[in-house]
Amino acid sequence: MMEQAVLYILAGVAAASAIAIVFVRHVFYAALMLLACLLALAGIYGIMQAGFLAITQVLIYAGGVLVLIVFAIVVTNRVAGKSLQVESQHRFAGFLIAAAIARVLAWGYHQTEFLVNNHSQIGKELKPLGETLFTSYAAPFEIGGVLLLVCLVGAAFTASSFKKSAHD
Length: 168
Hints:
Blueprint: H1 2-23, H2 27-47, H3 51-80, H4 91-111, H5 119-135, H6 138-167
Helix pairs in contact: 1-2, 2-3, 3-6
């Protein structure tokens, strides 16, 4: 019963933050709302016994992609000298499209038969995946991490050179 209450709370946080992303005018606040949504989804995955998805959600999306988005927003703010704001002239059309997509997703949800998995099988399926990721495919992940680090250092250097040339 407690898990179900937490599940509904996390679903509410995810839905509220997703709606807030649409209506927030400042891009930085939209990125914070995206963080709340991604973390709530990770919590939902955790409650649903999908630990691998929960950890992946936190590490890749909340930890990696969102940090890059926030970094890009901060760099853009430093270059332009004013905060980014979003103005939309097509809210009604966007609402209609979102309602249509929500209707299709609800229809798909009601048409789906969910299978109850045996929890003892989950560990047996993930163990080979983890072993493969840390043996055969460890080098591509390390190279990708170094590449992202080089990109971040290059972006910081570029932002600092823009700042110097703007004041000169």
